[in-house]
Each structure stands twice: as C-alpha cells, then as structure tokens.
Amino acid sequence: MTSTQTTMAAATPTEKTRRKSSREGQPQKAGWFARIVVLILCFLWIVPVVGLFLTSFRPRDDANESGWWTLFWTPSAWSRLSLDNYVTAWNDAGLDVAFVNTLAIALPATFIPILVAAFAAYAFTFMEFPGRNFLFLAVVSLLVVPNYIAFVPILRIYSDLEIAGTFPAVWLAHIGFGMSLAIYILRNYMATLPKSLIESAKIDGASHFQTFFRLVLPMSVPALAAFAIFQFLWVWNDLLVALIFVGPGDNAPITVALRNNLMGQAGAGQHLVTAGGFISMILPIVVFLFMQRFFVRGLTAGAVKG
Amino acid sequence: MVLKILNTLITVGVGILAALVLYWLLNKLAELLPGPWEDRVKPFLYILPAYAALVFYLVYPAVQTVVFSFANPTSTEWVGWDNYTQLLQSESFQDTLFNTLLWMIVVPVVVVALGLAMAVLADRLNPRWESTSKTVIFLPMAISAVGAGVVWGLIYDYRPEGREQIGLQNAIITALGFDPVAWLQVDEFHINSFFLMIMLMWAQVGFSMVLLSAAVKGVPEDTLEAARIDGANERDIFFRVVVPQIWGTVLTVYVTTLIGVMKIFDIVYVMTNGGFNTNVVGNEFFNQLFSNFNNGAAAAIVVMLMLATVPIMIYQVRNFRREESMA
Fold it and tell me: Core-most of A49, B5, B80, B287, by most CB within 10 Å?
C-alpha cells in the first residue's frame, strides 16, 4: 500500500540492535493470556481473507444470496464450487492483459531504481567528494516528501511529450518516488561492509566500476533483496500512480482493471470481484511468503549499522 | 495476447538494458578524463542519475506545485491566495481536514500498540507458532488497497432488511436480532471513517510488529534478569525496562505510520470515494485533479500536505544527524 512507502525508510536507520543469543533455556513463558490474545488476533486477521477465498469459488447465485460462511454447514454447496469465476474474470474482465501490464510496470520499476540507487550509495559510502554529507542529508529530507507534489507538474510534462500512459513514463515516476528510500537503505547497508576489503581491491588495481559490480553489489544482496521485495510489492499494489500516469486503457495495471472493470461495475457480482481480487493478490502473496525471511532480515538488518 | 507479451518483454528488456548501458557510458566518460579529474568527477557521475530522478520527480515539481497553487484551474492566470481561501472556507474541505486529522490521531497509535502487543506476546510462544502467527499478521502487507477493498467489502456489505446478508458484520448483528446497518454510510461519530481505518490497521500492524519484534528481542537479557532479581513483576518489567529500551523503534514506527496516514488515498477512494463524509486529503486531491480538473485547488491541497510534513522532515533529519554523530 502506498502508505508504507516511507515506512521502511525511517525504520531502518536508527535503532542500534543489541543482538544476543536466543532466549531458549528460559522458563516457558507462554501463559494462556498470550496464547489466547495471539489466537484471537490471528483469527481476526485471516477471516476476511478466508471469506474472499471461499467466495471466489462459488457460483453467482450462491455468492449473492448467502454468506460464504454458510458453506461450513451446507455441504451440498461444496459440490457447486468451481474455477469458473477465475476463467471469466481472467478472460472477460481483461485481467489477463492487466496482469501482463502489471509485470511490465513492476519489474523495471523494481530493477532500475536498485541499480541507480546502488551506484549512488556506493559513491556515498566508498568515495570522497565535496558536498557528500550535504547531498546525503538532502536524500534523508526527501524521504518524507509526499509524491503528491509530483503529479500535477509531471502530468503536464507527460502530456506535452505525449508519453502519458506508456510504460517508461510510469517506470520513471516510480524510479523517482522510490529513489530516496533506495539510496537510504543501500547506503546504510553498505556502510556496514568492511572498508578494508574495498581498500585492498583498490590496491590490487580494481577500478571503482569493477569493485562495484564484483564486490560491493554481491555483498549487498540482503539489502538489495529487501528493497527489491518492498519496491515490487509497492509498485504491484499501487493504485494512485497508476491512475494518474496510466489510467484505464490498454496499459492499465491490475489494480486499475480490478477497480474499474469489476468493483466499479454494479453487475459484476461478488463471485467475479472476489476471483479478480484473488488474481490480483496471488503473485505478491507468493513473493511475500517465499521471500518473507529475506524481507524481514533486510528490514531489521538495516538497523545493524556502525 | 502473444504479441502483447512479446511487446512487453521487449520493452522491459530494453528499459533494463538502457539503465545498464547508461552507467557503462558514464563510467567510460569519467575514464576519458585526464589524471586527477577522473577521480574528482567520477563520484558525481555515479550519483548523477539518482539525483536527476530526485530533482525531476520531487524537487522541481515541488516548486512548480507551489506556483500552480496560486493559479487558476488551467494554470493560465494568477489568482493569488484564492485557491487556499476557497478551500479553507468550504465546509466540505473542513470536514475533509477533520477526517484526515482523525486518521492521523487514531491509526498510528493503534498500529504501534497492536504491533507491540503482537511482538511481545508472540515472542512467548514456541518458535513454530511464533513464526506462523507473525506471518498471518504480516500477510496483508502484500495485499493492495484494491484487494483489501474486495476483502473488506465482504465484511461491510449491506442488504436491506429481510434479505439474507452476505456481509459478515451484518450477518452477525441480524443474527443477534438487530437491523442491518449500511456501515460505510453511517457518519455519526465518523463511524464509517473508523471502519475504513480498520482496513489500514489490518494492513499495517504486521509491519509495526516486525520492527518492534526485532527491537524487543534485542533488549539485553541481563537487564530483564536484574529487574527480576529486584522483584519486579512482568508488567513493571515491560513498562520500565523493555519499553524505554525500544522507545527509539516505537517512535520510528509511529512517525512512519503517521506519514503514510497523512497520504492515505486508495482505501478511501476504493470504498467510498469520500462519500458519506469519509473524505480525506489524498482523495480530495485526486478528485480536484481528475473530476473537477482544477489544477489550482489540487496544487493548493498538496502544498498544505507538504507543509504538514515539514516538522516530520526536520525531526527525521535531526534524528539522522544524531545517529550519524554517534556512529
């Protein structure tokens, strides 16, 4: 969601973590209170998703005439569950094209800012130049600037150049909006790499370009991965930037298509809306579940600095 | 469709390749320079694309937006402070500001509190349950606001009395004998805004939990041990030993959630589009721009939003400098 974009930024830097060994060997502390509260919270968090998931398999009449929870006491309804809604949403509501579009937007909008930011972070960490501290402080202060400020002026420029609605136009916007966060995270991470290693590479005659690609980039993989996951989720789930710079049409990403072709259509019905909703979530959820460990480590490791 | 995919692949490939070539060229350019100049110029070439992006997409538009905010809807004539005075005097915009303020007051506090509660309580479970429960809470982070709109649509759905309810909330209260309620249309005490806030909390608590959990686990064991030996009970230990040590992270999570809340757009847009007195600043901006085609008012709203973030910006920069000087 848009609101998290700056979240990681401010979250990574400050706290000096005091790593310590795990708490195993301590007396079992899980009282009934802890267990029950966690159980209730998890239940509340997951129930809405379960509802979406079950509804998406139900035929139109079932989905619109009874709640999904009735499935639990009407076994006869189970036999009517099918993938039909998915087929319809995919083929007839334009989600197939939108899915491809979203990939076309999200992949470069994830990869390019990482490259650009990694170069900048490298310069900030391993190179000496006048104005270095000032320029980095500028990045820190830009972290909180809402991307709303860009929309009116950039939209005008895009219209004048007639590139509004194209993929590169959106990539560039996402590159600009994600940049301060990316530089910030990568620089903080690179600052933890051993300086001596980079020095010795220099003595061995490696150029900055070589050191960057062969040494620093591979060593920064945890931070790169954390930002990549974050940016990918953000771009995939973005609605605002997509509405403003792409809009509905041939290049519309899945959030816009889902909103306009299904949720906005009174006739679409819950069965199709939920199937479409699940299609829009499946990839980010898979990425998230498989990369969660990496993501969490990256998020919290940004803190281990100095 | 095949053509579309092929086309897309080519565009993506060219885009990524172009980025790589750019840096190769910049580096070559620096190497062409004589002797010491190479080392002097190279850092600037390395940061150039990043700063070009920042300047073009944040700095320049910020200035331009301020300029537009003093101009008419099509940005062709100056109107002075009119955009600001008209907005601030209109009752609907005052309501919008008030709603945004409510979001800012309620959401960050709840997100931090629930995240901290989850972090502390899950820490006491065995490792398998800890990681499972955390995944469940963290999961909505991967779901878009539009997706969340679909998910929560099934909770808040309303059918007139007498028909079978397919919204969970109405199903529960009708089962208890009450009349069904159109939840998102009830603006007494801004109840509908609170229902929208719940969606954001649902999405954000996991993030807060992850960061706070790392902080809680980082609290040195001997400080807890010392407190226990002194006879402190669990509650005292939590509030007097744990909380002070993780206070930095608590503030970080609070501030970053706050920034996110100030910019909230998609949840409101998807659920009500600001109707029934649920409007917020982000959504009002969008409607001024795309429904009213009023560049001036849209720009003025953004300028106000930007001004509101200035204190946070100062706080962040200060915080950063302090951390740096300590490192």
Answer: A49
Read off the pLDDT of each residue in A70-82 and give the average, rounded to a whole number: 90
Sign of the CA dihedral A32, B238, B132, A37?
A: positive
Nearest to B197 by CA among B282, B305, B102: B102
**pLDDT value for B1:** 79
Contact by Cβ (8 Å): B158, B182: yes
Name the token pair of A263: 């949720």
Which of B140, B148, B257 is opposite residue A7, by nearest beta carbon? Answer: B257
Q: With beta carbons less than 8 A apart as the criterion, state whether A48 and B154 touch.
A: yes
Q: What is the pLDDT of residue B327?
A: 61
Nearest Cα neighbor of B270 from B260, B261, B255, B280 is: B280
Cα B254 versus chain centre, distance: 11
Task: For B198-247, write each residue's pLDDT tens digit.
Answer: 999 999 999 999 999 989 988 898 998 999 898 888 888 999 999 999 99
Burial (CB < 10 A; 0-12, 13-18, 19+), residue B249, is buried
∠ Cα B272 B193 B253 (to 5°): 115
Residue entry with tokens 């259509």:
A265
DSSP one-letter string for B172-233: HHHHTTPPP--GGG--GGGHHHHHHHHHHHHHHHHHHHHHHHHHHHTS-HHHHHHHHHTT--
CB contacts under 8 A, A 69-88 vs B, are 69
Q: Where are the alpha helices (DSSP H) in B123-176?
A: 127-138, 145-156, 168-175
pLDDT tens-digit readout, A222-275: 889 989 999 999 999 999 999 999 988 889 999 999 999 898 877 778 899 999
Using alpha carbons, list the distances in angstroms from residue B262 to A147, B256, B280: 12, 10, 9
**CA of B293 vs chain A CAs: smallest distance (Å):** 11
Query: Rounded to whole angstroms, how far apart are CA atoms B130 and A261?
Result: 40
**Cα–Cα nearest to A48, from A61, A67, A65:** A67
Residues 6 or more apart from B255 whose CB is under 8 A from it?
Answer: A10, B312, B315, B316
| pLDDT interval class at A27 (50, 70, 90) | very low
Q: Check if the beta carbon of residue A256 is closer than 8 Å to that of residue A248.
A: yes
User: Any idea which residue has 């469940």 for tokens?
Assistant: B136
Two tokens at A169?
A: 């136009």
Contact present, B180 and B158 (Cβ < 8 Å): yes
**Residues of A (4-23) whose Cβ lies below 8 Å from B:** 4-11, 13-15, 17-20, 23
**CB contact (8 A) between residue B289 and residue A277:** no
